[in-house]
Amino acid sequence: MKILNNKFFYIGLLLAFLLLVVLSLFLLMGSQKQSNTSSSNGLLIFQNNNKPPIIDQNSFKKHLLSEFNTLRKEKNLSELKFNEKASLMADTVAKKFADKNIGFTRVIDMKYDEKDVLPLEKRLRGFDVQNWKEAIEFYEATSVVKKVSAIDNKPKEYKSEKELLTELSAKLLNNANFRQSLLNKEIDMIGIGFLSDEENYNYFLVIVLMKSTDCGYPNKKCCVEQGYLPYCYYDYKCQEDICV
User: Fold this and answer.
1) Which residue did the predictor score with more confidence, 5 or 194?
2) Helix H or strand E segment including 204
3) Which residues pair with 82 in a beta bridge?
4) 64 contacts 192 by C-beta, under 8 angstroms
5) Across all residues in the chain, what is the average pLDDT?
6) DSSP 99-147
7) 40, pLDDT greater than 50
């Protein structure tokens, strides 16, 4: 009877040990999963050290807009208003770049065939972007690949979402023409296009900065300038001082 009790004691001890091991593994997996999920800036949806990050498009745009408006506020300028339709148009341009740069590459091609991309004015009109009188467009791109394996020349380490935002923002602000336009007090609207290629290796950013107007569009007064007849934008007509 004593031998039997000892046998059950050791079996119980073994089961308790196995249960402890399983519980430890479960907690470890949960901890790793949590560490791979976004916590900074609310941008990253999922991060796997062996795969490119998947960045939320809308969150990225909001953070970039916030950064631009912070810079304008420091210069006592009004905040830029986010234009949804202009952003949708910019997304189509970003997609054209993304379609040309599928997969990992050290050199990102930012040129496009002018036959495939209409002039900015026609594209804005095609997306029914209204209440603007002047617009200018800027492009930037970067790869999320941080390190490449010396053995097979394949991606080895990836940038975080914060690094990606910082890098693209710095590239734009180091562009003298962009910075001058961004800090122009007459610029008050912005469209942001942001897209990655199919494999999330390369990210493309398209910025449209615009000056708004309160005339020249349907149901608004005709624009008036000294030396010119009253006019409307696009092919709208001025009738009784109202654009139709």
Assistant:
1) 194
2) strand 202-212
3) 190
4) yes
5) 83
6) HHS-S--SS------TTTS--HHHHHHHTT--SEEEEEEEEEEEE-EEE
7) no
Give 142-183 pLDDT, tens digit per residue: 888 888 877 877 777 888 888 888 899 999 999 999 999 999
Enter the tokens of residue 149.
């394996």
| Backbone dihedral angles phi then psi of residue 131, each to the nearest 5 degrees | 65, 30
| Sheet with 81-82, side-by-side order of all strands | 81-82, 187-196, 202-212, 132-143
DSSP, residue by residue, 33-87: HHHTS--STTTEEE--TTS--EE-HHHHHHHHHHHHHHHHHHTT-PPPEE-HHHH
Name residue 102's amino acid.
Answer: I
Q: Token pair 């993304």 is at which residue?
A: 98
CA-to-CA dists, residue 199 to 20, 52, 54, angstroms: 40, 8, 9
216 contact partners, CB below 8 Å, separation of at least 6: 133, 222, 223, 231, 232, 233, 236, 243
Q: What share of the chain is helix, strand, coil (3-state, %, to 5)?
A: 40, 25, 40
